[in-house]
Write a structure and sequence with these properties.
Layout (H helix, E strand, L loop, with lengths): L9 H7 L9 H5 L12 E2 L6 E2 L2 H13 L13 H13 L5 E3 L5 H18 L6 E4 L4 H19 L8 E4 L5 H10 L5 E2 L3 H4 L15 E2 L2 E2 L16 E7 L5 E8 L11 E4 L7 E4 L3 E4 L19 H13 L3 H4 L9 E4 H14 L7
Helix pairs in contact: 3-5, 4-5, 5-6
Enzyme class: ligase
Keywords: Ligase, Phosphoprotein, Pyridine nucleotide biosynthesis
EC number: 6.3.4.21
């Protein structure tokens, strides 16, 4: 829902139809000792009309061609044979989904040459590889170098699309990592995020507390010396107001019995607790935020639950509607949540009626 394109969890793919993506593990590469372990060496062409009887030899032939390229000789020399065997075995099992984890031994001197050899062999049989995954090291440098190699291979062997193969990065990726990579410059196309998605290290617990705002049609309000803990009383409805450029200007709450804001209609928006913070807004678009998806026994009309795809698209659309200064990681501009003038007056009148009057002696 938050914007990921795929999952490595196959059960999530089975249950919810989320695209499943991933590579083999380091353990898979380490489990091979050499090319002689691959006993079945035949692989059918993508057309289904022919069979390559020795895909292993075809890959070795392509590796020799790569090692003969003058601009690659500094890197593409002797590679790890057990890694090559693992890549070949994986490619023969998944010829249409070949994506290799290239950092088990040495990314630039073994992983990338071995991947390129297997990818070129697959290409000869009509298959297109997906790309590689980096799971350690200097991700900016390694991705940039890898892209250079892919470009050289495409130009040298006239393999269309090779320079555009996907480079995926993993290894405890978090927001700060991506921000640092963007500042350095990199060639990573996608990020595999696990640990820091499952547990938010910045806020591992979500602080939510239930507060009563109305009972038996009587508005209730909690007061506090901490202004952020003062609640806004009564049943309310919320709306998002959009400006001329299409960005969300602010959210506004109104009392249940007030008229809803309308497009093109001037509206006074007030900070719920700060008297001087107020502004007139002429919304170009108004979006109602509260919708009933579970009515219980209330008898209220209930909307059907949206699909996962619909929720995901709404999330993307809402992010696009936010100004960049609201979304930046460092010192973001606070997004405004306002109340109508009527609700503002009601809040403060109730506040005065509920707060005890002190006595000085």
């Amino acid at each position: 829902m938050g914007g990921f394109d795929a999952t490595s969890n196959v059960d999530a793919g089975r249950r919810f139809g989320i695209p499943v993506r991933g590579t083999h593990s380091h353990a898979f590469v380490s489990s091979f000792m050499g090319l002689e372990e691959i006993t079945n060496r035949s692989l059918q062409y993508s057309s289904g009309r022919q069979v390559c009887n020795d895909f292993v030899s075809l890959t070795q032939e392509w590796l020799r061609k790569l090692q003969a390229v003058s601009s690659l000789r500094g890197y593409f020399r002797e590679t790890n044979r057990s890694e090559l065997a693992a890549f070949i075995s994986y490619a023969m099992s998944f010829p249409t989904q070949f994506q290799a984890l290239v950092d088990t031994f040495d990314v630039l001197r073994s992983g990338i040459p071995n991947f390129c050899a297997v990818a070129l062999a697959l290409n000869e049989l009509g298959y297109k590889s997906l790309g590689i995954r980096l799971d350690s090291g200097d991700l900016a440098y390694l991705s940039n170098e890898t892209r250079k190699f892919f470009c050289i291979v495409e130009d040298e062997f006239a393999v269309t699309g090779f320079k555009e193969l996907i480079i995926t990065a993993s290894n405890d990726i978090k927001e700060e990592t991506i921000d640092a990579l963007n500042k350095q410059g990199h060639e990573v196309d996608s990020f595999g995020i696990g640990t820091h998605l499952v547990t938010c290290s910045a806020q591992p617990a979500l602080g939510c507390v239930y507060k009563l705002v109305e009972i038996n049609k009587h508005p209730r309000m909690k007061l506090s010396q901490d202004i952020e803990k003062v609640t806004i009383p009564c049943k309310k409805e919320a709306f998002r107001l959009y400006g001329i450029e299409g960005y969300a200007l602010l959210d506004i709450m109104k009392g249940e019995n007030e008229l809803a804001p309308k497009e093109g209609q001037r509206l006074l928006c007030r900070h719920p607790f700060s008297e001087s913070k107020r502004a007139y807004v002429v919304p170009q678009r108004v979006e109602q935020l509260f919708k009933c998806f579970w009515a219980g026994n209330s008898g209220l009309p209930q909307e059907p639950l949206p699909s996962l795809t619909e929720i995901r698209e709404r999330c993307k659309a809402q992010l696009k509607a936010m100004r960049s200064d609201h979304l930046r990681g460092l010192n973001p501009t606070p997004y405004k949540v306002s109340v109508t003038a009527s609700l503002y007056e009601f809040i403060h009148s109730l506040w005065l009626s509920e707060a005890p009057v002190g006595e000085l002696r």
